[in-house]
């Protein structure tokens, strides 16, 4: 949606409402036996979102629906991409304008070139899967995600009194633009691995800002105005921030965007390190559909419940 609530006079009230709602999110267990395939689905969703210029709120909601659905129900291998399609289709209908509604032919065209998926899915299959997902979530899609919190935090993410390498900021707008790009990168990282489900969306969003400020060598790392706005101390963010920085290091190694330092230290409240500059577009490599995803004889069972 284009409603920029973080610019509204009642933004603080909206933020508190989102914080309250996220406390009621169900626990994520990570028990899905198909967890090995999650990364492929998330990467595919990212490609579709970028191709059709969809918003990050749609992307994050789609991954949320995907994660919690798979956490409770085992989906037939032949229908994992159908599930991802349904989650994204639902999210787009909820978050975007009507003109952004995804066409089935377009989604089928985006499927990986694989014998099982070469013919794509039918409209009836997609509709049935959408209804199944909606029923699973009791048709309640008002779910706080990282993408909803980040814009609110970005409003005060850079201050005129911030320093870069101990020197005053010469052009705040340029720093803000760069920090936004870094934040978008860390938001992508937060979707890549289910380990981030151990943290609330607002804490992940705040960690994206903190990790971005560290990458840009902004000091102080977590100024008081950010602490007051987010209601998080830097110590609360460090476990999540350090995971993000480890993923950043891995991305640097894979993409060879720039040479890495010999050591990549964890961050403590009073420790600053010289972060290597990196290309913010160096995301992890595109997925390759596993070769052992094979056709099964007979009519497959779509779901298998594993209980709570």
UniProtKB/TrEMBL annotation:
<dbReference type="Pfam" id="PF00134">
    <property type="entry name" value="Cyclin_N"/>
</dbReference>
<feature type="domain" description="Cyclin-like">
    <location>
        <begin position="152"/>
        <end position="246"/>
    </location>
</feature>
<dbReference type="GO" id="GO:0019887">
    <property type="term" value="F:protein kinase regulator activity"/>
</dbReference>
<keyword id="KW-0195">Cyclin</keyword>
<feature type="domain" description="Cyclin-like">
    <location>
        <begin position="43"/>
        <end position="135"/>
    </location>
</feature>
<protein>
    <recommendedName>
        <fullName>Cyclin-J</fullName>
    </recommendedName>
</protein>
<dbReference type="GO" id="GO:0051726">
    <property type="term" value="P:regulation of cell cycle"/>
</dbReference>
<comment type="similarity">
    <text>Belongs to the cyclin family.</text>
</comment>
<keyword id="KW-0131">Cell cycle</keyword>
<dbReference type="InterPro" id="IPR036915">
    <property type="entry name" value="Cyclin-like_sf"/>
</dbReference>
<dbReference type="InterPro" id="IPR004367">
    <property type="entry name" value="Cyclin_C-dom"/>
</dbReference>
<dbReference type="InterPro" id="IPR006671">
    <property type="entry name" value="Cyclin_N"/>
</dbReference>
<feature type="domain" description="Cyclin C-terminal">
    <location>
        <begin position="144"/>
        <end position="285"/>
    </location>
</feature>
<keyword id="KW-0132">Cell division</keyword>
<dbReference type="InterPro" id="IPR013763">
    <property type="entry name" value="Cyclin-like_dom"/>
</dbReference>
<dbReference type="GO" id="GO:0051301">
    <property type="term" value="P:cell division"/>
</dbReference>
<dbReference type="Pfam" id="PF02984">
    <property type="entry name" value="Cyclin_C"/>
</dbReference>
<dbReference type="InterPro" id="IPR039361">
    <property type="entry name" value="Cyclin"/>
</dbReference>
